[in-house]
Amino acid sequence: MTTQLTAPFKAQLLARRAGLLEQLATLRGGAVGRAEASAEHFGRPEDSTAQVSSARDLEFALDEHETAELREIDAALNRMEAGTYGRCIDCGVEISAARLHAAPEAPRCITCQEKVE
User: Fold this and answer.
1) Which residues of 21-47 are buried (b: 16+ CB within 10 A; e: fewer)?
2) How far apart are CA 58 and CA 110, in angstroms?
3) What is the pLDDT of residues 47-77, one digit of tens each?
């Protein structure tokens, strides 16, 4: 895929990446880790231990999801730099433009993604 064709996808990926990083910084309270921010939000004396534990579990799950999304975006940007963006990492077939518009970080064609899932 040429640079001209990847430019809109790159812009979309960079915007999503910036938004995700901003969201992470806001949710974490800047330099504070997500677990610490969770403890501050839910660690009041009137909160039950179960409530605090559930809140922390949710914070960790969100952190894992956001970290995975960042990795996918960075991997897509790296494929652009390598000139392999838009090709399935498993079978090498070109990924449809419709799929890339819906999920610009997609590393696989629909067929290979279904096999992975």
Assistant:
1) eeeeeebbeeeeebeebbbeebeeeee
2) 30
3) 677 766 777 777 777 778 888 999 999 999 9
Q: Where are the domains of the chain?
A: 3-85
Residue type, position 44, single letter = R
Q: Report whether 55 contacts 41 (CB < 8 A).
A: yes
Copy the structure tokens of residue 21. Answer: 């990083």
As a whole number of angstroms, the longest Cα–Cα distance in the chain is: 58
Cα gap 78→55, rounded to integer Å: 34
Alpha-carbon span 19 to 65, nearest angstrom: 15
**Residue at token pair 């969201």:** 23
What are the tokens at 61?
């799950």
pTM of the predicted protein model: 0.74
Helix (H) or strand (E) holding 102: helix 97-102
